[in-house]
Write a structure and sequence with these properties.
The protein is built from three helices and five strands; from the N terminus they run αβββαββα. The protein is an alpha+beta fold and 145 residues long. The protein has a five-stranded antiparallel sheet. Bound molecules: adenosine monophosphate. The site of adenosine monophosphate (AMP) has 12 residues, from loops.
Length: 145
């Protein structure tokens, strides 16, 4: 998939937004949805997406909607740091397949980094449902508190 093209309303994140596919939700409002990456590159790998913009990548979204996404990215980065105490955090976003994009609905990655731990393969091994559910519960508790 190239940098330019039509938005595919059947992409997995569009299905998640419509409630047609499941996700481990961490945060949702009328504009933004955040959930755990099910093929995490590190413990706590989180994705934040716009709900209303049919945006394949950063070129397709208006600045105000992007700002709403980024406000949630910052908020959840703080939550992940407070709860998981990583040594660092990567915030990343890929545009076009050559840049590493595999799902063509704009999304921000929040990837906690732990001392001495390498990243798992991008979009590689699936985490267990038990691990994801336990992590979701931990982070939701932290968000509520
Ligand atoms: P990108 O390669 O930047 O397009 O990232 C897409 C991300 O979506 C990867 O990190 C995948 O692990 C993740 N992903 C793919 N399908 C799902 C899904 N059903 N639920 C949560 N994360 C997913």
């Amino acid at each position: 998939m190239s940098l330019h093209g039509d938005y595919d309303a059947q992409n997995i994140f569009a299905q998640i937004i419509r409630g047609e596919a499941p996700c481990y939700t961490l945060y949702e409002d009328e504009d933004v949805l955040a959930f755990l990456d099910v093929f995490p590159q590190s413990f706590g790998h989180t994705l934040v997406i716009p709900k209303r913009a049919a945006a394949r990548n950063i070129l397709d979204i208006d600045a105000a909607s992007l700002a709403k996404v980024m406000a949630v990215v910052q908020r959840l980065t703080r939550v992940l740091i407070d709860e998981l105490e990583p040594a660092g955090v990567q915030v990343a976003q890929f545009n076009g397949a050559p840049a590493g994009q595999t799902v063509f609905h704009l999304h921000m990655h929040i990837v906690p980094r732990f001392e001495g731990e390498k990243l798992s393969v991008h979009a590689g091994g699936k985490a267990s449902a038990e691990e994801l559910a336990a992590l979701q519960a931990r982070l939701l508790q932290r968000i509520a508190g």
